[in-house]
Amino acid sequence: MSIEISAKELTLGHGGEPVARGIGVALAPGEVTALVGPNGSGKSTLLRALARLHTPDAGRIVLDGRDLAEYRPKELARKLSFLTQSPIVPAGVTVEELVAYGRHPHQGLLARGGEEDREAIDWALDATNLRPLAERTLDRLSGGERQRAWIAMALAQRTRLLLLDEPTTYLDIRYQIEVLRLVRRLADEHGITVAVVLHDLNQAAAFSDAMVVLAGGRIVASGIPARALTEDTVRTAFRIDTTVTLDPHTGVPTCLPTWREPSPAAAG
User: Fold this and answer.
1) In Å, what is the CA distance from 36 to each residue of 42, 58, 211?
2) Are 163 and 80 in contact, with CB atoms under 8 Å apart?
């Protein structure tokens, strides 16, 4: 069963002036929601608030019908998984060992792991196509393989909600697409609810069911990509002119910047 989480009237800050006010968002169960916006717009802070790693100054977050603040830490870790932007790679750790770390919320203090843990680890390895690399250490993986290993660790928690903060950062285009295809498959084939912070607007539109566009501390557009990603939205959020076209077969929008500056004569 997919999981539901929503936020209402959030004010988010870092001890001073709030970076976002009046934020409301609901993640559709079993779908991928992309959070996009310029630097400093509050998208990563919002994601961390949904993971209870950042306490809102005001507002409420509800997870499966309960206030997020009511969950005990271990209980919450069984509900959601959060993957930070640049996780530190442990030295000498194999893929399988890393994935096994995801079972800690389900184990007692002295537990060594049982059949249920083994099944969860095997499922996470298979879901991310990492079975052939299970015994390889992380320092011997490509960037895309290493990111898949971190996602597999999050999946081993057996949560139904996955929060990813810029999982494609520092990856070349091949591995970016590889990771995003995995995210898409997790939602489509396993019913996992995913929220992902992305910078690339076209990737966000192509791989998500919904987009939330933040700018200036507020949500300027949200909904299916064809409605959220428009020329007006991009101009408002990023202060650039673009041409947005819709694929006639898929309805997915593609955003291209207007590269040329106006000529002096045209400007005059």
Assistant:
1) 9, 22, 7
2) yes
